[in-house]
Every structure is written in C-alpha cells, then in structure tokens.
Design brief:
Number of strands: 24
Strand content: 25-35%
Strand order of the largest sheet: 15-16-17-18-19-20-21-22
CATH class of the largest domain: Alpha Beta
Distance between the termini: 46 Å
Number of domains: 2
Number of helices: 6
Order of helices and strands: EEEEEEEEEEEEEEEHEHEHEHEEHEHEEE
Oligomer: single chain
Length: 458
C-alpha cells in the first residue's frame, strides 16, 4: 500500500480478453500506516494524474521496475577537464543487445551494449561537456536505448539528463558548477482552486511562468512527489529542486514501511532529473510529538536508503521551529533547514535572526537553511498601521521586507524558500476572512481579489 503521489503500474496481460473493462479504485480513508495522515493541507482523493495504457512487445524494457522510465543516467562532472563520465543503465526483458544513442549539440553518439542477467551498464565520456547551468543555461542531453532482437529494434525508451556539479559550504552556501549560486525561491503545492491536485500540463506551465517572473531559482516541492511534467519543467527552466516525501507532522509506528516505499519510488522515478539536488526525509515531524528512539531510527533508515539508492545527492530535513537546536534528529540528514514563523504565529520578527545566529554559532560546520517563512494576508484587508496577526497585505510586506534583509546578511543559509507560492487548500483553517485556505501566497494569478503581490525580491 502506498500513497497516491507516485507512478504505479500493473501488468494486465494475463487478464485480458476479447472485450475488457478496466476499473481502478482508490481509497483515501484514514489509517495508521500510509503517510500523510496529518498536515496543514487538504488531502484530495481520486485519480488526479494521467492514466495510460501501455502496449509493448513480449520483449521490452522493464516497465514494472518501481514505475521508473526504465533507464537510469548518472553523470559525474569533472569541471577542470570539462568532461562528464555518464553511466547509463537499462533493464531489458529479452532481446539480444541494446544500442544507446546520445543526442548532443554536435550530433549523435552511439554505443552497443551487451545484456547480462537482464541488465546493461556502460560508461560514456562527454568531452567539452555542455553543463546544465541553472537559470543561465539549463542544457539537457537526451539518451535513447533501443532493444534489438536478431538485428531488429523491438522496443525503445529515452530520457533527458543534465550534467552539473554542486556542493554546499556551511559558510558560503550553495555552489553550482564551481561558482557561488545563492538559492532564493519558494515552496509549491500542486494545488489549484476548483481543481485540487488534478492539474493539467497547462496549469504546470502557468505556475512555472510565474515562478520565473518572480525571479526564483529554487523550489521546495512540498510535501510529496509532484507530477513528472513539473519536474521536467524544472529541468528545462534551470530551477534547483528540493524533492521530499509526505513523512510529515505526525510519526506513525506502523508507517515506517510506507515511508521507505515512498522514498524508494521518489528516488527511482525522479533520479534522472538534474534539477533535483536533495531528497527530503521529513517535514516538521515533531509537530505533534517528541523525538523518540523509534522516530530517530526511522529517519536513520530513510537516510541510509537514500544514500544506497543515490550517493550523488544529499539528504535534508525541514524542522519545526520548536525543535531544539541540539536535537539528535538534526544531524541524521546531510543538511538541514528550519521552518520559522517568528513575527507571525508567535514572537517578534527579530527572533528569526536570533535563532539562526545562535544555531550557526553553535554548529558552524553544519549546513543550515530557511525552508519555510511567511505571513497570511487577505487581499481585501488593508491598514495604514499594520501589525502582526491583522491579515493585511501591508503587514505581509513588512514581514517579507524584514526577512529579505535577514537573508541578504547571512550568505551561509544554503537555501531559502518562502511559504508559499500560492494560496492553497487547508480544510482545517478558518481565519483571515476565509475558510479552508492557507493565505501566505506571494503571488496570485489574475486581478481583483487575486491580485499579484510580488514579494520575493526587494
């Protein structure tokens, strides 16, 4: 049993008859073993992603392998040499051999690969590699694998990939391809009023256009696996992505296997996307409970799984502001970020600076970031004397202007993500003149009540 955010496939071959009726049922009832069960956003039901009937010959590339594209690409960039060593793997079922075709800006390269025990592996060197370079130049290569039997092509699959190098310094922040590349951006839910999670490709494109207009170069895709279409758009637009699973708000004793399953699917299905730079283990998991031995072990196991499946990307967690700075939970992941709301839910704005400065002084060798910050505003509420908790646009501006200054003065924050890009459904809320909505949006499409607020940049 898994959550409804990832790809799943079933082999119908043996069940097919002359005439067939395909019925898919889904169940969104409460339970104690599938995440999420508690969080500050609406859990929709039903089928809200594409449903495809895939027909292939008897001998084909594996389709049931975790719902992946069937081809795995691992580039290793060597900046000084301007080269990339690109490992390509496939999983054919049958056939005699596999031919790889890599499309570059200079033409196509071909490689014949032998099949061994249902698996192929080869390493290709790209000289004078064209880097995937964020917003400046998000260049993508395409690799196509062709399965042959007795010299005839019987199946074909392809994927895009990007060659980039990144690292994160505890004092200097994020680096892309050898240069400082401060990550400033937003968080996004796959949510649209009147559609819920059932976004079309055009909806995803519209979101991306707004993200680019804001000037963001990073996204935290909260709090679950998003549509592959949107990861593709992030690749194409050079957006740096934090991808995570919905291990959120409430730890469940019976939920460990489901969290591991969701992480396995997130990584194996999204592995080829160059936009993704880290895997999120959990979000505010201590919001409704304490740090226990069981919770710590579940995170250690998730962390180990991530490193086993993908040694090229670090792990990360987003911690609730009430989690103590010396908690044993924090160092389990490779890097960390905090969700802080001083100046909105509690306390004063200056406590945000105080918190980060104390943390950085205590742990100068740890990477720390700002994974959530924001203040709700109803576009109909205004005040010439804005104050915390009044839900006015003016206080939201005061809040963000303060946080922008905080961020600019602390280059060691590895990434900062505003909460949230758009207002989104949260059935448990009834505040600021609206029911069932979180109103921390930076920007709302359209006019009138949905006017643009544009609060990402000074």
């Amino acid at each position: 049993m898994t959550a409804g955010y990832s790809t799943f496939r079933a082999d119908l071959t043996d069940a097919l008859e002359e005439n067939n009726l395909l019925v898919v049922t889904v169940d969104n009832s409460a339970n104690d073993r599938v995440y999420p069960q508690m969080a500050d956003f609406t859990f929709y039901g039903g089928l809200y992603r594409d449903v495809n009937l895939i027909v292939v010959p008897a001998e084909h590339f594996a389709l049931l392998k975790d719902g992946t594209p069937g081809i795995k690409v691992t580039p290793e960039v060597r900046l000084k040499e301007r080269e990339a060593y690109v490992a390509v793997e496939t999983w054919p079922l049958g056939g005699n051999e596999v031919w790889l075709e890599i499309a570059t800006e200079h033409g196509k390269e071909f490689r014949k690969v032998e099949i061994g025990n249902g698996h192929t592996y080869t390493n290709i060197i790209l000289k004078n590699v064209h880097l995937w370079d964020g917003l400046d130049d998000p260049y993508l290569y395409t690799v196509t694998a062709k399965l042959l039997k007795n010299g005839e092509v019987v199946d074909e699959i392809s994927t895009r990939f990007g060659c980039r190098e990144f690292h994160i310094d505890p004092e200097k922040g994020f680096f892309l391809n050898g240069r400082s590349y401060p990550l400033r951006g937003v968080s996004r839910h796959q949510d649209l009023k009147g559609k819920g999670n059932a976004l079309s490709y055009n909806d995803h494109e519209a979101d991306m256009a707004i993200i680019r207009e804001l000037g963001a170069n990073t996204l935290r895709l909260a709090h679950y696996q998003h549509a592959q279409d949107f990861y593709d758009l992030c690749d194409e637009n050079g957006i740096i992505v934090w991808a995570e699973i919905p291990y959120i708000s409430k730890h469940m004793t019976n939920g460990k296997q489901n969290a591991l399953n969701q992480m396995h699917e997130l990584i194996t299905q999204c592995y080829n996307h160059p936009s993704i730079v880290c895997w999120g283990l959990s979000n505010e998991i201590t919001a409704s409970g304490t740090v226990t031995k069981e919770l710590l072990q579940d995170h250690r196991d998730l962390n180990e799984l991530c490193h086993e499946l993908d040694p090229t990307r670090p792990t990360v967690m987003a911690h609730a502001f009430m989690l103590e700075k010396d908690s044993p939970l924090i160092p389990i992941a490779d890097i960390a970020s905090y969700n802080l709301y001083f100046g909105w839910y509690l306390g004063e704005l200056t406590q945000n600076e105080q918190f980060f400065d104390e943390y950085h002084a205590l742990y100068p060798d740890r990477v720390i970031g700002f994974s959530e910050y924001g203040a709700d505003a109803n576009t109909a509420f205004h005040s010439s004397q804005p104050e915390k908790g009044d839900y006015t646009e003016e206080y939201q501006c005061v809040y963000h202007e303060h946080i922008l200054k905080l961020i600019e003065e602390r280059p060691w924050l590895w990434a900062t993500h505003v909460w949230n890009l758009f207002d989104f459904a949260a059935d448990g809320r009834d505040e600021g003149g609206k029911k069932g909505e979180n109103q921390k949006a930076l920007q709302r499409p359209g006019g009138g009540e949905d006017a643009d607020q544009g609060l990402l940049q000074p």
